[in-house]
Structure formats: structure tokens, C-alpha cells
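User: Predict structure, ligand FE2/S2 (inorganic) cluster.
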Amino acid sequence: MAKDFVESPTATCDRQEEQVSAPEQGSPGRLSRRSFLSHLGAAGLATTASPLLASSGAAPVSEEIQETASKAAQGAIPITLKVNGTEHRLRLDPRTTLLDCLRENLNLPGTKKGCDHGQCGACTVHVNGRRVNSCLSFAVMHPGDEITTIEGIGEPGHLHPVQSAFVEHDAFQCGYCTSGQIMSAVAVLKEPVGPTDEDVKQAMYGNICRCGAYPNIIAAVQSARKRI
Ligand code: FES
Ligand code: FES
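Assistant: Predicted complex:
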């Protein structure tokens, strides 16, 4: 009966998890996806927080997690990144994206993670003045580059003209895409973009707004270009 095949997504996931995590003949060391991810997260946490944990007297992490963190630390490489005018000396796993580095290592959460696949523009930052989807770029590719995030272009009481225009034109709803939209717009206004709304729309086609605030976003960009 059809009913036999109807399962909630959760049930399906759980079943897949069980299938993946079930020990296989000849593969005694196989990890489940959930277990692997939890170890990976714990490794990142342990790597970044270990000096803090060591000095704060927090409960010790398990040996297994320490071993995983130690292996991750062994592969880390030193790099200096210049973000918003400040140099940061870091040791990073070479697979760390620029987006994760900004958010997790440098505590700059203004840059958002939407799709993490280069398809939404929420993670837009500037590298040497040009727009970059930070989820598609490895942090270790940027020694010596001038990286700018939303935190670096304006602040309360001293907003960038594009930020002010977004506020005046009500160019956001949930706000999740907004930092990416603003970073994109700031760069667009330095590019050879035509004068019409359609030109602006084309120039910013990589920045998706799930709330559909596009008319107000275009109005804000057009307004800001008159002040810059
Ligand atoms: S999070 Fe980078 S493009 Fe969507
Ligand atoms: S304002 Fe909500 S996604 Fe753009």
C-alpha cells in the first residue's frame, strides 16, 4: 500500500543515518556522517578554543577529540590576512574558506552564509576592491590582499552612503541578504554600470533576495549613486 512508502523526511534521514553508521563487514572503523561532522566541528572548536580552554580550567575534551584536533592542527599553515585594514596572523587548515575564516576565526559575522555554493551572494566581500563570493575562495589564497567586509565600510553614526540609502528606501525585510547586497552595490557603483534600473539589476544578478525586496534595493542603489 502507498502508505507503506510515506515517511517523514526526518524518518528517512534517520534511516539513512542508520544505514551509513551501521558497521560493515571489513570496515570496522567506518564513521557515520553525523559522527564525522561532530568530530570535525569539535576539532575546529578544540583548535580555536584550546588556548582558552587551557587557561580557563574548563572541562577537558575527550582523547578522541584531542587526537582529531591535533591532526587538524598539524595540517594548519600560517598566514597573515589583512581585513578591514587590520592584519591578523592565523594558523588555518588550508581548506578553510574565506567566509568561514571571517566568521569563525575573526569573529566578523556580518558576512552571511546563505547557500555556501556561490549561488546567492550573501557572502559577498571585497578583495582588492572587487566583489568576491567568500564561500568560493580559500582564505590561504589571500595573503597580502586587502579584504573588506560589511564591518569595514561603515558603522552606526557613520554609515556608508549605500547603507544609508538601504535604510531610507527600506531595501530589506529579513536582512539576511543585506550585507551581501550592500557590498555588491558598493563595488557596482565603481564599475562601468549603465544608468538604468535594468543595468543595476543585471550588475547585481548574483545577489539573491529571498524576501523579494528587489525594487527597493534597486531604488537604494540608484539613490546612492547620486551621492557618491
Ligand atoms: S553563501 Fe556564498 S554565494 Fe551563497
Ligand atoms: S531581505 Fe530577506 S533575503 Fe533579502
